[in-house]
Amino acid sequence: MPWFLFAGILLFALNLRGPIVAIAPILGQLQSDLGLPSAAAGLLTSLPVLCFALVTPLAASLIKHAGAERAVMISLVGILIGTIVRTQDGFQAAVFGTTIIGAAITIGNVVVPVIVRRDFPAARVGIVTGAYTAALNIGAMITSLLTVPLADAIGWRAAVTAWGVLAIAAAIVWGQAAGWRRTLLGEKTSRDGSADIIGPERGPHAPAWRSLTTWILTLAFAGQAFSYYGLTAWLPMLLVQSLGMTTQTAGISSAAFQIFAVVGALGVPLLAGRWRPWLVVALVAVLWLSAPVGLILAPEAWLLWTTLAGAAQGGGITIVFILIVRIAATNDQARGLSAFVQGCGYAIAAAGPAVIGAVHEASGDWVAPLYVLTASVLVLGVCGVAAGVRAETRHPDEAVPAAQAAGD
User: Fold this and answer.
1) Which residues of 224-259 are buried (b: 16+ CB within 10 A; e: fewer)?
2) How big is the CA angle at 372 (ends 367 and 375), to the nearest 5 degrees?
3) Burial annotation 192-215 (CB, 10 A radius, 16+ → b, else e)
4) Dist CA 82 CA 169 (whole Å)
5) Among candidates 322, 324, 323, 316, which has minimal Cα distance to 378?
6) Residue 243 above 90 pLDDT?
7) pTM for the complete prediction?
8) What is the DSSP letter of 364?
């Protein structure tokens, strides 16, 4: 395993969710400072997800022409710039900076599966993908846990800006890792005349959109992402208003949702090596349901529900990424399939925080928003199981006649 690239991927991943999650624990302060209603405040957490949908085709094109290594650096620089701009005075600056962050993270979302397929052996794909997903959640956990104490000490603007340090550190390490890879690739080329250091390509394939499996997998991803961003954005406020917690305690408490995602992210690859994919998805969906259903029926047991759902959300995105990498026939296919599933899935998920905020505002309580989250998790379960079953019988990337592909 190329450990230097592995380390670079993990540090990169710390920056791909933290900047979004960072404002959730201090959303009340932000609303008060900027004079925003709940739906508008939710927009600041949903904007990056909307960018995931709209910018994904451009990200895929950038990766194709600039290369994966440069794409990662562009992503990190964008995250840093957006983090600085977002905390300048006024709602417009917050929206502009958040949009930059969302576009930059989109590039990272698409490029990582490409790098994993390109540079790691098939036997290690699950472990690397799980570790990457775990790092996503560790980044979110760190920001959830420490943003409120930082905000109390130095103000919410400075606290949110401070997380740009992670982007700087990741850029330094990734630059070194990319240089090592180029050296390794050069040595390989000079030794045997070939630049191919990955597994063989499987030949022609039909476009991803022609496969029903791809569409079902996209809906599963959408259900996962809608639930994740919807709950992440409003869980601290839910705990404050429903259980009377302080803002700081709620911020710490909601970090459990991110902490236990590491368990799911690392555990799912182990299960995926032994269980059928649809069984893994079914388990993930059952655990995910514990959060909205449990918070409706027994909110006092919030720690149990957020712990179980945290493990589920870490495992949910991991199994989807594992399926994307496994069914990709070529590196181009991996980029295209990753872009399609994430682009369309995030287009649906982008509405999550705003919808949850609007439903809460309209209903005056948190029961109705939790029903919305329950429906979203059911979409993940039903579509994820169906995609797992179909993935066992055929790959959506196989070359098939146009007429047959259109009918599938």
Assistant:
1) bbbbbbbbbbbbbbbbbebeebebbebbbbbbbbbb
2) 125
3) eeeeeeeeeeeeebbebebbebbb
4) 16
5) 316
6) no
7) 0.73
8) S
Question: Closest Cα to residue 361, out of 349, 346, 372?
Answer: 372
Q: Which helix (H) or strand (E) holds 73?
A: helix 68-86
Q: Is 130 exposed, middle or buried (0-12, 13-18, 19+ CB in 10 A)?
A: buried
Element (H, E) at 11: helix 3-13
Per-residue exposure over 56-86, b if at least 16 CB sit within 10 Å of its own CB, e if not: beebbebbeeeebbebbbbbbebbbbbbebb
- For the chain, give every domain's residue range: 3-407
Q: Give φ, ψ of 364 to 5 degrees.
A: 80, 5
Confidence of residue 283 (pLDDT cuts 50, 70, 90): very high
Contacts of 241 (CB under 8 A, 6+ apart): 366
C-beta neighbour count of 306 within 10 angstroms = 25
The CATH number of domain 3-407 is 1.20.1250.20: yes
- DSSP class of residue 36 equals -
Q: How many CA atoms lie within 13 A of 220 on its CB side?
A: 31
Task: Calculate the CA 169 to chain-centre distance.
Answer: 20
Distance, CA of 389 to CA of 400 (rounded, Å)? 19
What are the start-end ranges of the H helices in 122-163? 125-154, 156-162
Residue 155 pLDDT > 60: yes
Q: Tokens 């949850």 sit at which residue?
A: 356
Q: Residues 356, 171: contact at Cβ < 8 Å?
A: no
What pLDDT sits at residue 193? 37
Q: Alpha-carbon distance 333 to 388, whole Å?
A: 19
Q: Is the Cβ–Cβ distance between 137 and 224 less than 8 Å? A: no
- Tell me, what's the pLDDT at 87? 87
